[in-house]
Every structure is written in C-alpha cells, then in structure tokens.
Amino acid sequence: MGQSQFMHSTFLRYAVSYRGDGKRDIWHRREDVFASIANYLSQSGWRAEETWGRPVRLRPGFDPALVGPGIKKSLAAWAKLGVRRSDGGNLPARPIEASILRPGGSEGPAVLVYDNYRVLLKWNSSNYFASAVGLLADSLEERKLN
Hints:
- 38% of the residues lie in helices and 12% in strands.
- Helix 1 crosses helix 2 and helix 4 (115-123) packs across helix 5 (127-145).
- It has a five-stranded antiparallel sheet.
- By secondary structure, the protein is α+β, with helices and mostly antiparallel strands.
C-alpha cells in the first residue's frame, strides 16, 4: 500500500501522521511516508548507532561456504579472513557481528551486513531491496556531507 509498499496489517500497525492530525496518508504526503517508514524500522529493531552494512572486498580464493545470512562472525574474525572495506581499508574495530552476502550471485559484489540489514529484510525479504536501500542511504549521506 502507498509509496512505502506496506501490507495492510503493516499500515494499521506502523503508519503515522507526521503532522499529528490523525490522517495517515502514505499515498500523497511524503512526510507521512517517511515518518511511517522510520516508525516501522524503529519498531522492528533498527539501531540508530549502527549502519546497515557496507560493500567489501574479499581476498582471492575466499571460501564461498562463508557467504550467507546464517554465517555470522565478528568484524575482527572477518578481518582475519582477509575481508576489507571496498576501498581496501581495514574494517571498523567494533564488537559487531556480521554476515557476508553476494546479492548478485557468486561472482557479484560482496557486502558485509549487520543486524540493521536484517531489519530491512523484515520490510521486504529481497536481498536486492535491502542492499539497494542501504547503498542509497549511504549515497544520500555522502552527498549531505559534501
């Protein structure tokens, strides 16, 4: 339903009126669309202090058996396995568990995903969707900083 593509039950539970007038309009009022999405993500476990994930480089010969949502390791453990930021830099030194995914298939780009990525999958269970939302958010944030 609406621009946020909510199911009916999701609309009833999470849609909000940004203006506070009680009229939740996710079809015509952008502020209601974004406020409702933010409410949904917040109520679904989104952690504001954490990102969704990041594109990464895998070392040549990286074991494909380590790719998948069910395999979670600490950032330090991934670093020991040769996982690097997409620019070649070190992964953050934070106590976060993550998984490696390749939404485009075994030869596609790799992403290191955190729990916020899993929250995005609650909204839409497509890895393409969740990766696209994360990458778009990163792009918007980068533009805001420049």
